[in-house]
Specification:
The protein is an alpha/beta fold. The protein has helices at residues 20-27, 45-50, 55-58, 62-73, 87-96, 120-130, 144-150, 157-167, 174-179, 206-215, 241-255, and strands at residues 5-9, 32-34, 81-85, 103-107, 193-198, 223-228.
Length: 257
């Protein structure tokens, strides 16, 4: 289904500002671009950091995020094309099966239930927010050192610090724990889906994205996959992000014509 509306969904520890360059890029291509934040995220980064530990954030659930975007989509004049990163990619997959979007792109998507990898980097990068011995009602912060490991290990020190200072905010522990039981009906009819992976992603390894795609092998809907070598989890903000955006733009032209 053809659509000229793009709705961007950021991931965990991020805020809608992370799409600033992408919005400019696709607006120049003639799209209406929307990048609403998760509930409570439409605030400056400094404000969100100063509120830590915010008890409201501590109570945020994955269902709250999905419902938030569902409500926003239902106000639009046409079904949008969804572009989500990380946990936002899982939200895209969950929204597609609701039948309220024209197509979906999930970049370095968090896995739904049944998709797992024992890879060490995945376990190490995700352990801080999945640790069962911590109070799940208390939000978690991501320090620069963890951002460097999980999001941006092959960027320069300057690039890592700039990305961390500009985009990283505290996160709910409940959202990632909820994702472990987030169910996708992989066989159900749905709009086209593009899964994108970063070849150097540690927190969501490319192998995990390949398993995710394989789950859709019996689906009647189109499921495409593209892996970008050398890209980290910060694929939407690191150098050459335009190549990823251009690939998505070309895919949209073909799959939603």
């Amino acid at each position: 289904m053809k659509s000229k509306t793009l709705l961007f969904i950021h991931g965990m520890y991020m805020n809608p500002k992370c799409w600033e360059n992408w919005r400019d890029h696709f607006q120049a291509e003639g799209f209406q671009c929307l990048a609403p934040g998760w509930p409570g995220r439409d605030l400056p980064v400094d404000t969100l950091r100063k509120k830590h530990p915010d008890p409201v954030l501590g109570g945020l659930r994955l269902k709250d995020v999905v419902d938030h975007f569902t409500d926003r989509i239902l106000t639009l004049h046409e079904m949008p094309i969804l572009i989500g990163h990380s946990m936002g990619g899982l939200v895209v997959q969950l929204l597609l099966q609701k039948g309220i979007a024209a197509a979906g792109i999930a970049i370095n998507s968090a896995p739904p239930a049944g998709v797992f990898t024992p890879r060490w980097s995945f376990l190490k990068a995700n352990w801080p927010h999945l640790n069962p011995f911590t109070d799940q009602g208390v939000p978690i912060q991501m320090g620069l050192e963890r951002f460097e490991y999980a999001f941006a290990h092959n960027l320069t020190a300057k690039e890592r610090r700039e990305g961390w200072e500009r985009y990283i905010v505290p996160e709910s522990r409940r959202v990632p724990r909820d994702s472990l039981s987030a169910k996708i009906d992989f066989r159900a009819p749905r709009p086209p889906l593009l899964l994108i992976a970063g070849g150097e992603d540690r927190i969501i390894p490319a192998s995990l994205n390949r398993v995710n795609r394989a789950k859709y092998r019996k689906s009647a809907g189109i499921t495409d996959y593209k892996e970008f070598p050398g890209r980290t989890h910060f694929i939407i903000g690191q150098k050459k992000w335009e190549e990823v955006a251009d690939f998505i733009g070309d895919w949209i032209k073909v799959r939603t014509a």
